[in-house]
Design goal:
Blueprint lengths: L5 H12 L4 H11 L2 H7 L1 E3 L16 H4 L6 H9 L4 E4 L7 H12 L6 E4 L1 E3 L2 E2 L15 H4 L5 H18 L3 E2 L24 H18 L5 E4 L20 H5 L3 H9 L4 E4 L5 H4 L9 H11 L5 E3 L6 H4 L4 H11 L4 E2 L4 H13 L5 H22 L2
Parallel strand pairs: 1-2, 1-10, 2-3, 3-6, 7-8, 8-9
Antiparallel strand pairs: 4-5
Helix pairs in contact: 1-2, 1-17, 2-17, 3-17, 8-9, 9-11, 15-16
């Protein structure tokens, strides 16, 4: 592997080329990356994934492990398996001094990974729900949006983005663009803005605008909509029986609004749509959902990120390596939270080397990821 990190190469190319030729700079950077670096750019992992002395078979055990600093094993793993990004969870965050040092050390890893976190507001807020952080706290978005005032939602997301940027995060995995139409839904509920698609659409746009204003990249989730399910895809199979016409009249309205508002990341849901695809394959692994519907019908050109690949809806149906390869074939750009990261990395790398995944397919994703990194650099200048 080349010793120069792809993040450094990319920044140098940008500085040399100027803002008017970013596409050329990205192509130059892509040419200088090894296959190993390109594959690595597609993985956004937990910090625990880099600590190969620790094996976990369920995310529930990670809290007791309490990983809150970079160690030498993580540095060595990142050298051989350079991740494009790191996602932090509540148990990785103790205090302001600890987080500051942790982020500094994570950014110093060879690939200079981007940093992301789930900070929706309300029950899902890794920093705001930590008593050691004096940051604004907000109700769940469903409660905040109940007044119908988009300015309140935008003010909340602006404040969230400002403190995330201050602590060093590039990406907020928010807003939730689901429509909360099923009262039996156990995983979305008040995390969604509304049970009315047009109301949710306006709030999604407002939330994204606030993040953009504060200099943080947002992420629409969970495509193609997790609001009409009963099961929790964290633990097993989840599905919706809606047809595509029904989905277009409901779930797609806020997603289309978010895309039109400039969303740069869309996160997939591991839900199955048998009346759309004719199978029980999760949307994360479905070329029809990701390529025909998201890219084709909705015209989305940005980054497609999976929901956590360690979730039960994936791992209870597929080996970790097979799921990763299938998701890339389906059109995914970033694989989030894979378990057994080095093994899955090697599986993807070997699939490319034997021609199962064309390297040109990897290049498509890396171009989008490099554009995302450039956007983070641009935001960082604000």
């Amino acid at each position: 592997m080349r010793k120069v990190a792809f993040g450094l190469l990319f920044v140098a190319a940008l500085l040399a080329s100027g803002c008017s030729s970013n596409d050329a700079a990205i192509e130059q950077e892509l040419k200088q990356m090894t296959l190993q670096q390109k594959v690595g750019a597609m993985f956004f992992v937990r910090p625990e994934a880099l600590d190969t002395d620790f094996y976990y078979d369920s995310p529930s055990v990670l809290k007791s492990y309490n990983l809150q600093e970079v160690n030498d094993r993580m540095r060595e793993t990142a050298r051989v398996y350079p991740p494009g990004g790191i996602i932090l969870f509540a148990h990785n965050i103790k205090s302001e001094p600890q987080l500051s040092q942790f982020i500094k050390d994570l950014r110093a890893l060879p690939s200079q990974p981007m940093l992301c976190v789930d900070e929706e507001g309300g029950s899902v807020a890794r920093l705001a729900n930590n008593p050691n952080f004096r940051v604004p706290k907000f109700a769940n978005m469903g409660s905040l949006a109940a007044s119908g005032r988009t300015n309140e939602v935008m003010a909340a997301s602006t404040a969230i983005g400002e403190y995330l940027k201050r602590y060093g995060f590039d990406i907020d995995l928010a807003p939730v663009a689901d429509v909360n139409t099923n009262p039996r839904n156990v995983v979305i509920g008040a995390r969604a803005f509304s049970n009315e698609p047009k109301v949710a659409a306006e709030m999604v746009k407002a939330y994204l605008k606030g993040l953009q204003k504060s200099g943080v990249i947002g992420c629409l989730k969970h495509f193609p909509g997790h609001g009409d399910t009963q099961a929790d895809s964290h633990f097993g199979y989840a599905m919706s029986r809606k047809t595509w016409d029904e989905i277009k009249d409901c779930e797609m309205i806020p997603f289309k609004a978010g895309i039109d508002a400039g969303a740069q990341i869309v996160m997939t849901a591991h839900i199955s749509l048998p009346n759309v695809t004719g199978s029980n394959v999760p949307s994360t692994l479905s070329p029809m959902i990701l390529q025909d519907k998201l890219r084709g019908e909705l015209g989305y050109q940005g980054v497609i990120m999976t929901d956590a690949m360690e979730m039960g809806a994936i791992l209870r149906q597929y080996p970790v390596e097979d799921a990763a390869v299938m998701s890339i074939k389906a059109g995914v750009d970033i694989l989030l939270c894979v378990r057994e990261y080095p093994k899955v990395f090697d599986a993807v790398l070997n699939a490319v080397r034997r021609g199962e995944i064309p390297e040109s397919r990897i290049d498509e994703s890396v171009r989008r990821i490099l554009k995302l990194r450039h956007q983070s650099i641009t935001y960082g200048d604000k």
